[in-house]
Amino acid sequence: MWRLRSPRISHLVGRLSQINVVSDVKVQQYRCCQTLVSPPPSSFQQTKCDPPDTVVPRSYIGENVSRKDKTKYLYSTLLELNDSKETVYGALDAWVAWEQNFPIASLKKILNSLEKEQQWHRVVQVIKWMLSKGQGMTMGTYGQLIRALDMDHRVEEAHKFWEMKIGSDLHSVPWQVCHVMISVYYRNNMLEDLVKLFKGLEAFDRKPRDKCIIQKVANAYEMLGLVKEKENILAKYSHLFTEEGPTKPHRRNSFESKKDMHLTSDKPRQRQSRNTSSEEK
């Protein structure tokens, strides 16, 4: 009977036999490797669905890696990845997979480091990933995202995000975040939106504390041909230009002023660099 079978069937039977032999060898090698690298004994119970010697306790994975090294590893990884959203999101998902609590503090440090390197597109991706996880939903994060979108030449997206998330609640938005958006409008010559935002803040009796905001609004009125409104706004808030500040300004105020100089235009930035060089001399 076996002599009468065709050569094709004989070849198929031979291949199936080889596959069975190879499969048995691979299974034996897999079990041997799993035995060699199996973790220390744990309190986890073996189930029928688990392969032999493959149960790894959750606390055992990455417990010997410090938080600083984990943060440094993610930062270097983000710098090397391409701009694909799926790739970046996948790396972030893998990084937090074994964390008991969401590492918001470490991500804030990474975002600050990315800002120093002017990796604005990556800052946008990381913040959007955080927001998709329901984390970092604060005004500080929103302001950081708007600033990164502006520096990444996505001002229309920054404007839409402001209108959708922040612009409908102007009575409670911190002035620091409002100043960021005013600077974005001023930088991109969106003067009508700037004036509209400032009028909305005034409607809630919000009084600005920084003369830089008033100066930008006044300049916007002038460039729009509204000279009368410019004079009115300067007269209304003239006390901000005449009041003398404290002898030792707070570090936060000095930081905000430097940030504002960075967002307005290139001319103030050059003037600031010349002043800095003269002081160093």
UniProtKB/TrEMBL annotation:
Region (Disordered): 244-281
InterPro entries, alphabetized: TPR-like_helical_dom_sf
Compositional bias annotation for Basic and acidic residues: 244-269
Coiled coil: none
Protein name, per record: Pentacotripeptide-repeat region of PRORP domain-containing protein
Gene designation: Vigan.09G170500
